[in-house]
Each structure stands twice: as C-alpha cells, then as structure tokens.
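Researcher: Here's the sequence for the chain we discussed earlier.
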Amino acid sequence: MKSILFLLVLTFAAAPALAGQAKAFAKLGIKGFERTTFWHVHPGLTDKDIANSVDAFVRSGVSGVIVGGGRHHYLHDDLPFLDEQIDVTARVVKACHAKGIRVCEHHSVVLTTRKDYAREHQDWIQRDFDTGGFSVWPEYQTYAFCPNNKAFREHYWTLLADIVQRTGVDAVMSDDASFHHGCACKTCSDLWANEVGGSLVEARKASKKTGTAEWRQWNAVRQRWYTDFRVWLYGKMRREIPKVQCFSLLGALLSPWGPQTSGANQEGMLDTGDASWWEIYNPADFASWRPLAVEATALYEAGRVRKSDIVSLPYADRAEARDKVDPEEETFMWALSMAHGIAFTQARVFLTGITPDEPARDYWVFERDVLQPYRDAEPAASIGIFFSRRSRDADPKWQDSHSGPAIGWGESLQDAGIPYRAVVEETLDSGLPKDIRTLILPNVFAISDAHLDKLERFVRGGGTLIATHQTGYTDENGEPRHDRFKKRLEKALGFRIRVDSKSGLSAESNTPLLRRVLAGSLTVYEVALDRGKVVYLPDLDERKAFQNLMNEGDPYRDPRDPEVVRSLAELALSASPAPPVLVESKPTVLTTAWKMKDRLLVHMVNTAGAVWKDGEKIPAPSKVTWSDTQDLKVSLDKPAQRARILSLDAGENTVIESPGREFRVKSPRRYALMVVEY
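Model: Thanks. This is the structure I predict for it:
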C-alpha cells in the first residue's frame, strides 16, 4: 500500500485542483434569485392554481422560485409520471416568466425509494459495508445511487438535460450526492484500489480510530470524490447548457458533520455553484441566533473569495405538521441574512413556500424598495477571526478543538457590539483585506507553511496576531509538526515554545509576560515582532464562550461563562485600532457594520425575544416576540454628518443631523438599517 502520509498530501492537494477546474468557468451568480421562495409543484396544479401562486409571489416582491418534484424532490421516484411533472413545471415557468420571476428546478440526484428501480440498476446502488446489501439512508429510508458510477452519471445527465430543455427553467439545484454511510460498491472499491491501493473495506475498518492518519485519509478521499461529482456536473452544465445557473446546497460550514460523516465537501460545493444555498436543518432559528450569525459571517467570506453568492434556507423539517410555523421567524431569519450580506429563501415546513392565501411578506417588499441601494457593500472591521477548514476537518474532538472556540470568539464580539469579519484559508491566499489589523487564531492547530509565512508577514508589517492553545501544532493535513517544525513555528510566533506531547504547546517562561486576565486564571503573553506583535494565550478554553445550536422543545440553556465572554471581547478590542463603529447595548441586539464609499451601514436586529431563562422550554414551533427595545450608544471612529434610520417598521424611520462621534438611537422593534454619512 502506498505511503499514507504521501496519499494524505496528494488527497488534500487534489481537492483544490479539482475545484480549480470548476473555477475556470465564469460564474453566473445569483442572477434573479435574490428574493426566493420554494413552491411544492405537483401534476394536479391547474392553470388557475398556478396563476394564484404567481400573483402571491408578485405581491411579496419575490424574484425567483425553487420548485420541487411531484413526491417532494426525489427525482427517480418521479420517473413513472415524469412527463406530467415536466408539463406542470413548463406551465409554471411560463407563468413566472410572464411576471419577471425566474425558476429553479430542485431534486435529489441520487435518492430513490422504488425497490423495482433499484433492482433494475443494482450496480448503481450504494452498498453497505457490513452486509454488502443495498445501503439505506436512515433519515429518508431510501436507497441512494453512487455518484462515482459513470453509467449512473450519464443516465442522470440524460434526465436532467431533458428536464431543462422541456421546461425552460433558469437554474438547477441538484443535491444529496454524498457518501452518507461510505459506499462499498464495486465502483468505489475499484476506485480506492487504483487511487490509494489495498482494500476499501479494510481501509474503512482502519479509519474507525479517530484522529489517526487512516481516519484523515478516509475522510479526505471521500471529500475529493464528492467534489469530483460536483465538478463533473458543473462542467457539464457550463459546456452544454451555459445559460442555466447551477445552484449548490450547503450544510454548516463550521461543523465537521459533512467532512467527517457524509463526505460532503462544503468548499467543493461553493466552488461548483453559481450561488450556494445554506440549508439550516430544524433550527430553532430565533433561539439559535448567536451561532447562526457567526456561521453566516464565515459563509459570506467563503463565498466572497470564491465568487459564489450565499443564500440562507431555514428548513423546519421536524415540525409536527405542514406549515406549523411562526411567520415572524421568517422575518427574523431574513433580517439576520440581510445583516450578513446574504440573501434569504423562504421554505416553510416540507419546502412549501408562500401559498396564495397568505398576506404579502413585508420584509421582501422593504428589501426591494428600500435596501437595494445598500446591498453592494463590504464588511467594515479591523478585527478578523480565522475559521480554518483544515482544522475543522482534522479535528479528532469533533468541534471542540477549533470550530467551537472560533464560534465562541464570534459570539463574544457580537454580544459586545464589536464588528469583526471572517477569514478563511482562501482569504490568506488572495490577500488579507487591508482594514484587518488584528487577526484571531482560535486554536487553529492545522496550518500550512505557506500560511504561516503569510501570517508572519502580516505581523511584521504591523498587524496583531492573537493566537491560542495549540496554534500551528500540526501541518495543514493534521500531521503533527511541533517536533519537526519547532523553529519554524517559533519564528512565525516570536516565542520560544515548549512542547508537551499531552498538553501541546506553551510559551517558555522567559517569554515576556504582558498580564494575567480572565479572573486571574489564564496567562497572556505579548511579544513584539518587527512592527507588529503576537498575543498568545496557551491555556485559554474558548469553549466557555461557545453557545451551541438549540432545538425547539428543548430547555433553553446558555452555558457560557460571562467573564470569559467579556474578557475575550475586551482583549480583542484592546489589541485593535478603534473600530469603525461600536454599538453598546444589552446583548439582545445583533449589529453588523459594512462600508460603502463615504457611508457606514449598521444593520440592527432585535433578538430580545430569543432569550429565555435557563431551563425554560423553547417554544415549538419557535415563537418570536418582538419586544424590549432599548437605547443604543453608538461610537464612531470619526464624526458623521448625518445618521438615517431605515426601519422595516416605517414609523421608526428617523434622521439625526450632525451626530458627531457619539450618539444614541433606539433599537428597532424588528430590523433597521442605520446609514451613517460622513
């Protein structure tokens, strides 16, 4: 068998190379799907039904719709009546186009529950490792075709091209093409033997020990295979139907769920999508606003460096009944999306979307009529937080080592009203935004030599690096590097480093001591490095600042240590130049800052109704209470000529002339954009 270390390097290097093939095509972007709803389309719809729905979309300012299949979206289950589905979809497209609305066709590329169809194409079906029989996805109770099988791919393309040609849709969203439980079919077994060497079944057994080279190899190869399918599909569409947009469906960017469980490669999806839909499964969206806001920040940046527009898609899949939702939760998720520079799609339960008997959505009308001039902006922040996909994928402790701590930093800055922006590996590749003067590395343990070089240049050029715990402990593939590259790491961080095989890295005692913070329990070191400095916290447990997602029906709990949360914000603020804006409030107002020529844009979202007492049951479905507005103290880094409040509730609109550098405003009942003019 080939060297595992060599194969790891080859595998990790291959994924960007594959994605690079997709980047060779000019991306079409979101193009008409800025304000999107789902539509459960089925052959029983009459022309009157279709007209009524389209009229409802027009009233709500909808610009695009995503239509599902006859039996939800399982394409291969629809085959017995695909002609009828194509006919109704074509009528939907015609009616939508007449009103200037674009249409995307959405389906599962691999799922099928039809046993007869599976028997007819047994060599296409994913196989279970233990039994050798057909693999069943427990979440759906369905079979899945193998994306590696070339015969299946060509069959699927024939179906897809026919659907596009006969319906006239503007875009396609094809999802579920992952290796959810592996896949021990002959195609995958042969592919593994040719690419890696040895037995796929034995490799899976060896991968069971978390954190080993075999475990990292297993996850990396599946991600590469997943990306390969997306590259194939994206390339086919660009070459053969170049005017049809290709949309991808994403899970959480900061969670190891995809890379370590299903083989899903979120970055590969971003590379192969003109726009990417962020699917939020069963969130108590409103209750989980803190981690969702951090996730949105990271997704915006990951999309920006790949030129892939991001759209949020909350999907309450665990609700007891269709459409049993609080409509104001939609408003909240729309507001959170606007605050993070991403679009919003309304799905409802079971991807139903807006129905004709519902009132118009005021948030979309407001977005269309008021917010459009302010959408082309960029984050205004001097602080960056590094969200590392390398550390996420190689984390043997699920999200405890890097993702949780990184989210904890983001939540701490959010609560303090301190603007920050996300940084990912590709940000370092393309160049850090010039505004970033402080970069936080929350236990970013997996870093390449090339990225260490860039971080060192950032510091020597005058930047501040805040590094915690095992920063740089491994190379980008998760291989321990501390013993081999100790001098290289010391040069980049400016510390003399002591290595302990159990606890990891720590600064030597003769490193200059700056101060002790966090209730005296942690040591903070500061070292000058040319024009900049490195701040190092070897003992920080950032998980104490991390509030995770919460589900409807569960007891509310905020496990964070308030002292840690406050101290992280104070440390980041003290190590940075004055932020462009600081909004002081109770931590129930979410604010984000963006810049646009001579204007500063501050989004304000009321989150007061998302805070319950510990142990109090989260309503099911989530219940949004717009209440408890408050005075906000706004501090600017330079005097302003005017501040205009543009509120979703028009009665809150106001203009403040000559506000100077400090002034007070009322927080909105729901959402408002403050436009600061200099």
